[in-house]
Amino acid sequence: MAPRRPIGAGVFPKPVDSPAPIPPDPAELYAALDLGTNSCRMLIAQPKGSQFHVVDSFSKSVQLGAGLEGSRRLSRSSMGRTISALRVCQQKIKRHKVKRMRLVATEACRRAVNARDFIRKVRAETGLQLEIIQPEEEARLAVISCAPLVSTKTEQLLVVDIGGGSTELVWIDLTSVPKRERPRAIMRLHAGFHTPDSPFPAAKVVDWISVPLGVATLRDQFDDVQDDAARFALMSWFFEENLAEFAPYKDEQTRIGFQIVGTSGTVTTVAATHLGLKRYDRTKVDGLRMTSDQIDKVIRGYLDLGPEGRRRDPRIGQDRQALIMSGAAILQALLRCWPTDRLSVADRGLREGLLYAQMSADGVLEDAPY
To answer: If you ran DSSP here, which 8-state letter would residue 342 be given?
Structure first.
């Protein structure tokens, strides 16, 4: 016979003590904002070991560079959209009481004749002070953001950052750096591509280039071509022509010890499509290594879908469908120039580079393996 249950037993569940998360100390927080040709993105983070922990984030398509190709000016509507997004960023910075920050603008503001007026307007309406950075610093920040993804077996590294208005490529020689030190040697580039003599093994920057063609600017160059496949082919070959002055382009490279790391919305979208993700998952995409055959298969699939099919594909979406083919054309050109068995996918970029650079300069990151 089963024992009787005491009257009232189990009516109310026993409370479980779960302390509320401790809010981070504002003195430990850093903010990094990247205002590009298409997007406004921000991270707020605190150092954690040799990495950092993201406390808050923001990302929105603002299309700051819309119409810039023809007018060389930032339009009133694009500035309005961007300032609305920056107000949200300012509120997050204020809420978290962040004191250390870098807020940067890139290619659209480098090219626009009214960029300085825009910067002043942003300061007046949001209190945020944007800084227009030059292509070399943009390339350097993209490189150090990818340091944790660099294999210890890598001897020649090519980092590619496909942006909205420009594409940065940096070729790095790691042969003189001990294997275990190679990711850390990449991180030390936060001080500059050409640093004075250092007691540490140095990563040698062989060459770098900033091509003034990104997913938006390359698309605009061939906007009048109606045929989808023809436009894609023209964009890919045109981008390759603009790499002619990049020194490593001229020499055939061995595949052994060679690694390409690609960082951009294009690369992560291609990776998500390859994985068949119904919903984007950064943990599955960041650090993924794709073969050139897998990338070609995804790109061929995009072409087979056509513009309407890409628009309906949830992995691409309405916002990105207009830009995914110009990004894919850049990616295909790179794999044509430097045939490789693998491309490492990085869901990271300028924001992460800005955070690593600030934290490294302040000495708050632990000197530990990545």
So the answer is: -
pLDDT at 107 over 80: yes
Give the pair of three-digit tokens for residue 202.
């140095």
Strands lying side by side in the sheet with 30-35: 51-61, 39-48, 30-35, 100-105, 131-132
Mean pLDDT computed over every residue of the chain: 87
pLDDT tens, position by position, 279-297 = 889 999 999 999 999 999 9
Q: What is the mean pLDDT of residues 324-328?
A: 95
pLDDT of residue 15: 45
Q: How far apart are CA 185 and CA 201, in angstroms?
A: 7
Domains of the chain: residue spans and CATH: 26-133 (3.30.420.40), 136-351 (3.30.420.150)
Angle at 66 between CA 64 and CA 67, to 5 degrees: 135
Sole residue written with tokens 């997004």: 85
* Distances from the Cα of 346 to the Cα of 22, 65, 86, 159, 238, angstroms: 30, 24, 25, 10, 25
Beta carbons within 8 Å of 53's beta carbon, 6+ residues apart: 45, 46, 47
So what's the pLDDT on residue 197? 61
Say what the pTM is: 0.83
Residue 166 has, within 13 A of its CA and on its CB side, a CA count of 23
DSSP letters along 214-272, please? Answer: -HHHHHHHTTT---HHHHHHHHHHHHHHTTTT-GGGGS---STTEEEEEESHHHHHHHH
